[in-house]
Structures are given as structure tokens and as C-alpha cells.
Amino acid sequence: MITVKDLHKSYGQLEILKGIDIEISKGEVVVVIGPSGSGKSTFLRCLNLLEQPTSGEITFEGESITAPKHDINTTREKMGMVFQNFNLFPHKTVGQNITIAPLTVKKQSAAEADLIAENLLQTVGLSDKKDVYPNQLSGGQKQRIAIARALAMQPHVMLFDEPTSALDPEMVGEVLEVMKKLALGGMTMVIVTHEMGFAREVGDRILFIDEGRISEQGSPEEVFGNPKNIRTKEFLSKVL
Ligand code: ADP
Ligand code: MG
């Protein structure tokens, strides 16, 4: 579904991504771990061109999205993204947050968009929150709404950048539960997280990114159970 070839990203003189190669299959759940500042967010943001790669090629569903003539908007519609800080529209209700992109970008009818929103609210367990504003929600609820909003565009892949890092500990579980449900439903997902228990349980593959490179990857059993790289071992010894 996604192929990344020799992806580099620099900010000025500073090279952040130093050659990333990876193929992600449909339905795969890839969990990205690694030290702070190693380039995890930059990698994720390059996948949907929130950041323009300095060099390298990314193809998505057979199309080169880094080609100069490519229309990124159509690709972004197929890639849902969830951020650490929710990024909900504060002056719109939960229902409006979820339906705005389907109405304006996908030109869905109000009835169709509402129906999809109601189904999604049910999926994330917040059917009773349709008419409230984001500031009336807890952090965990906000993030579940942010996930529902991304799903409303019926994306082919979901990208998560530390979706639980801004949450109080007691709210982490409810968000991970929703993500697990998505994974079991066959969604293709790329998830940056420090939740190692979740990574181990839900990930099909773990990528350890260190200093702008994938320095180790494998199944959760391989990476957590028998890390080969000294840097992976060091990192895991700090976070496990
Ligand atoms: P991670 O998500 O693994 O913590 P990031 O991808 O956010 O790492 O950042 C990697 C490095 O790139 C950091 O040193 C960060 O300061 C730098 N960086 C990220 N975004 C920018 C930017 N827009 N301009 C300059 N430097 C940046
Ligand atoms: Mg980050």
C-alpha cells in the first residue's frame, strides 16, 4: 500500500531523516518507536506530505505521491491523521467536527454525513456527545472524537502520532481500546507511540527509528523479546 524509498528530510543543514526504506502492506499495523528527536514525527508527516521530503520517493496505492505533478489533496483524503493534541475545532460541536470534511471535501449530503457520524460515535463509544463542544470533553473523549473525525473521510490508512501522550494516565486505555478495535477491523495503521504494551499486543511490525534511520525492525516478539541492535536494547531498557 505504501512504499518509501530512500527518504531524506533536512531542515536547513540539519538532516533529520537519513534514508528510510519501508513497505507497508494493506491491513498492516506498523508501530514506530524510538528516542525523542529521532525523526518519528517527521517520518509520519512525510508519509502524507505534511512535510515535503528533501529526496526519495513515496508511493501510495501504486501512485508516486512525491512526483511533482501529483495532487496531494486526493491522497491526504485517503490518509487519516491523529495528533497528540487532538486539534478539534473548538467552535464546532462534536457532530460538526466529524461531518465538516465529508460535507465540504467529499460533498456528502447532510443525511449521509450525519449517518456516518452517528455510526462513528457509536464505534468510539460517544453517541451521547454529538451536540457538545470539545471543551466539554475529557482528553480521552477528545481524542476518540479526533479518531472518529479522521475515520469519517473513510481513509485507507490511519497515521497516529503519539495519540495518548497528552492524556492523563487513566484516559490512555480508552483511546488504545478504540485503536485496537480499528486494527482488528483490518485498518492499515502507522502508529508512533511510547505505549509498549499496546505495541506488543497490536503491532504486526515494530520499527525502531534512531537518528533518522530504521535501525531495527521485526515482529513484536523479535524486537521486544530479542532486540539485536545495542541502541534498541538501550532504548527498551529505559522504557520497559
Ligand atoms: P520525534 O518525533 O522522534 O521526537 P521529530 O521528527 O519531531 O522527532 O524531530 C526530529 C528532529 O527534527 C528534532 O531535532 C527536531 O527539533 C527537528 N525538527 C522537527 N521539525 C522541525 C522543523 N520544522 N524545523 C526544524 N527542525 C525541526
Ligand atoms: Mg514526535
TrEMBL record:
GO terms for cellular component: plasma membrane. One of its GO terms (molecular function) is ATP binding. Gene3D superfamilies: P-loop containing nucleotide triphosphate hydrolases. Pfam families: ABC_tran. It is a peripheral membrane protein. Keywords: Amino-acid transport, ATP-binding, Cell membrane, Membrane, Nucleotide-binding, Transport. This is Glutamine ABC transporter ATP-binding protein. InterPro entries: AAA+_ATPase (IPR003593), ABC_ATPase_HisP-typ (IPR030679), ABC_transporter-like_ATP-bd (IPR003439), ABC_transporter-like_CS (IPR017871), MetN_ABC_transporter-like (IPR050086), P-loop_NTPase (IPR027417). The gene is glnQ. CDD domains: ABC_HisP_GlnQ (cd03262). Belongs to the ABC transporter superfamily. Residues 2-236 form the ABC transporter domain. SUPFAM superfamilies: P-loop containing nucleoside triphosphate hydrolases (SSF52540). Its main location: membrane. It comes from Paenibacillus crassostreae. It is found in: Cell membrane. PANTHER family: AMINO ACID IMPORT ATP-BINDING PROTEIN (PTHR43166), GLUTAMATE_ASPARTATE IMPORT ATP-BINDING PROTEIN GLTL (PTHR43166:SF9). The keyword Translocase does not apply. The keyword Nucleotide-binding applies.
